Structure to design on (82 residues):
């Protein structure tokens, strides 16, 4: 499926309109490339608007920010740099 798809993203205060842009061709798509290379990875989706983790941003979402920092903390804890 290539092109643009209008979507409604669930949000804490209702639904947020958005678009999903899908490029033409067979990829490689980032998730497929990582999986194919045997790279352990996680993709996080947040039902929040862009900029949700910036406290002075109008789209700030405290719940999404907390989840984001928790996920980032797990990443750094579970995969320390050598």
């Amino acid at each position: 499926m290539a092109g643009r798809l209008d979507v409604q993203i669930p949000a804490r205060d209702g639904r947020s309109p958005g678009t999903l842009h899908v490029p033409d061709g067979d990829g490689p798509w980032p998730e497929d490339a990582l999986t194919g290379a045997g790279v352990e990875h996680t993709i996080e989706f947040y039902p929040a608007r862009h900029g949700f983790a910036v406290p002075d941003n109008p789209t700030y979402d405290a719940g999404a920010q907390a989840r984001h920092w928790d996920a980032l903390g797990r990443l750094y804890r579970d995969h320390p740099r050598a």
Q: What stands out?
A: The mean pLDDT is 81. The chain has two helices and two strands. Residues 53 and 65 are 5 Å apart (CA to CA).
